[in-house]
Amino acid sequence: MIDASDPKIEEKIEVVNSILEKIWASQTRIHVLNKIDQVSDRYLEALKKWLELEKSIYISSQNKEWFDELTQTMLDYAQ
């Protein structure tokens, strides 16, 4: 779970990815970016482009946006 409104989001994602590589964590990673209601559409599009090669889901727990996609993705990976 990643705070999409965090101004240091890129740095934090890179640190976590680096740590996961160091411990040989090879599981499929799904980035769940929360708080999309707190960022501009332009910023959200830039995030999507930056993360386009990785599985990412964009949600707003405040507005309950995209929860169906999150639930389905989790079910797909659990099987």
Walk me through what this model shows:
With 79 residues, the chain is of the alpha/beta class. 46% of the residues lie in helices and 14% in strands. It contains 3 helices and 3 strands; from the N terminus they run E-H-E-H-E-H. It has a 3-stranded parallel sheet with strand order 1-2-3, with no helix packed on it. Strand 2 (30-34), helix 2 (41-50) and strand 3 form a beta-alpha-beta unit. The protein is globular. The two termini are 21 Å apart. The mean pLDDT is 87.
Main attributes of the structure:
14% strand, globular, 3 strands, 79 residues
- The number of E-state strands comes to 3
Low-confidence stretches: none
Q: What class would the helix/strand composition place it in?
A: alpha/beta
Ends distance: 21 Å
Note the beta-strand portion: 5-15%
Enumerate the strands of the largest sheet in spatial order, edge to edge or round the barrel.
1-2-3
Strand/helix succession:
EHEHEH
Number of alpha- plus pi-helical segments: 3
| Average pLDDT, all residues | 87
Task: Give a brief rundown of this model.
This protein is α/β, with parallel strands linked by helices and 79 residues long. It has helices spanning 9-22, 41-50, 67-78; strands spanning 2-3, 30-34, 55-58.
List the helices and strands and how they pair.
Elements: E1 2-3, H1 9-22, E2 30-34, H2 41-50, E3 55-58, H3 67-78
Parallel strand pairs: 1-2, 2-3
